[in-house]
Amino acid sequence: MKRKTAILWIAAVLAMSTVPTICSSDNSGPLIADHTCTDLSLIPMEWIDSVQANRRLHYAHTSHGGQLTTGLSRIRNSDAAYDIAKGNTYLPGDADAFCIFDGQEGDTYITPDEYWGTATGMNMTRNVLNHNPTINTSMWSWCCQLNGYSETETQAYLDSLTVLETEYPKVTFIYMTCNAQGTGAGGYNRYLRNEQIRRYCIDRDKVLFDFADLDSWWFNPTSENWEHATYQYNGHSVPVEHPQFHGSQAAHTTYGSCEQKGKAVWWMMAKLAGWGDNATGIEELNRTEDDHTATGIFSLEQNRPNPFNLSTSIRYLSQRRCSVKLTIYSLEGQLIKTLYSGEKQPGVHTAVWNGVNKQGEVVASGVYFYQLQGPNGIEETKKMLFLK
Asked: Is residue 214 classed as helix, strand or coil in its secondary structure?
């Protein structure tokens, strides 16, 4: 079929950097690294230092997975503060660098059967972890396998990582989605299998590096908006690699795509190192009247789970009795639904959104914003991702 690519533009006023990303704010629940996790300026440098001092990564992959290491190298070349040390089939011992064991022992091109798909592959992974006890993070990257994998074959990947998690409780295993370069029937199958992996990670509070999401979103520096690329298949809108990433500069893509993924790796590792662990709403109770507690609304928390499918909870805290309004908006600023409008007593309050609009219809998959309004025109806004 003829490929039809659609670019969806996010309104600039809703894409401001002041709006939090969907990345978990306190490392509880699922941790998902996607295109909203690519602003390195938001990561305090002490957490970059912490990654370099304390995180050790085992990374196995085929050619497409090289986008991550290429991106990390290019970021390092631009700013030495983001130093990495990558050893092909070994773990470097460089001080003040994020050290990466690339591949398995004796090989750097790692197919599924050499990491998780066979007993031999599982043992190859075990060997790396057993012989390098300082490694505390491990992940494997897809090539294009999910274009043709069945639900059962994809579940085997999830089951194998669960086995490894049980055997190595001190190692964080990072799940990944497959690249979004495929179109047609294969691309749609890949999309379904990626959704299967996302759902599994969300339901079980796993760590997910969303490679496909990073493929399909591009930040336009001229408009300062994110653009999303999709194609149509049998009435379905399927995410696909953004045209700006079409190229062969490295690992089947452009340097820009590689760097975007490298930034998401730093974000993910900083979160795993502990960035945000103490950023809880409870601490807000200790703020003084000089802060925005004087308005009556002192904390709007990130929804849980996020992304979500069936329903999500939104928690907020009030300093005193006041009138509040909690609403859901689309990317275009259209009012989707009002979850609550009225007076609230002091304390913690929770609202639930089940993904339907004010007419009771289920909305389309995508990014939505929820806004809490209080007295004197004070408001807070956060964003969330709904996946059908």
From this structure: helix
